[in-house]
Design brief:
By secondary structure, this protein is an alpha/beta fold. The chain has two domains: 14-78; 88-255, Vaccinia Virus protein VP39 (Rossmann fold). Helix content is 46%, strand content 17%. The model has no long low-confidence stretch (mean pLDDT 90).
Amino acid sequence: MSEPQGVDYGVDAPGVIRNLVLIGVTGLAVWASVWLHLWSGKIILGEIILNVAGSGFGAGSACLAMALWMLWGSKIGKVRSRERLLDRITWTGAEQVLDVGCGRGLMLIGAARRLSSGAATGIDVWQSEDLSGNHADAVLENVRRSGVTQQVRVETADMRRMPFAAESFDVIVSRAAIHNLYQPGERAQALSEIVRVLKPGGHMLIDDIRHIGEYAALFSRAGCRDVRGYGSPVAAALLAVLTFGSLCPGTLVVRKNS
């Protein structure tokens, strides 16, 4: 589904991308400087320096490639994957939906477009280090441009302490948000809140860049017997190796017991 003109879902982890670019440029600059000296024929460099230059080329190229991949994912990839994610839920159009950590509205707006008589609520605490331009005004502008103002409500709220009554929502979605709680106890608290505010028989769609196995175990311990994982284990393992464990993505679709 194409996006209306002017809708901008921001850049994920802008600080990480900036650091990758800086490291990449520095590594390639070191490599270029060494080889320019070699080609000049005026200076003979030792093996250690040559090895450092080679490492700089490898690390610099890898960091720049990762930065470009993350930027592509932020501007193009995540919009394409959103519809595939939401297709894992069977929609009637009457659902009450909650987007936990809605950011600038990617999943929130995608869910709202699938509703007729239902409504979608997004919550966030708007941390700019997690997403560029992350602010309630940004998601509201995207909602307006997408033409789903009547279906959407946005609140500033902490996922660990949600201001909703128990069993308020039919569907809960969350993309690349829960991992920003760095302590396992805090993530467990957020997942417990998600289970609390979901109606019996309702569905949770959790897509994140790491901790998916942890989430699945927590949902199972909470009594959710229908926990389904999606995504390629091979691709997740490869990304984990390439990023030294920083990225190990996966998706869960969980049904709360009736």
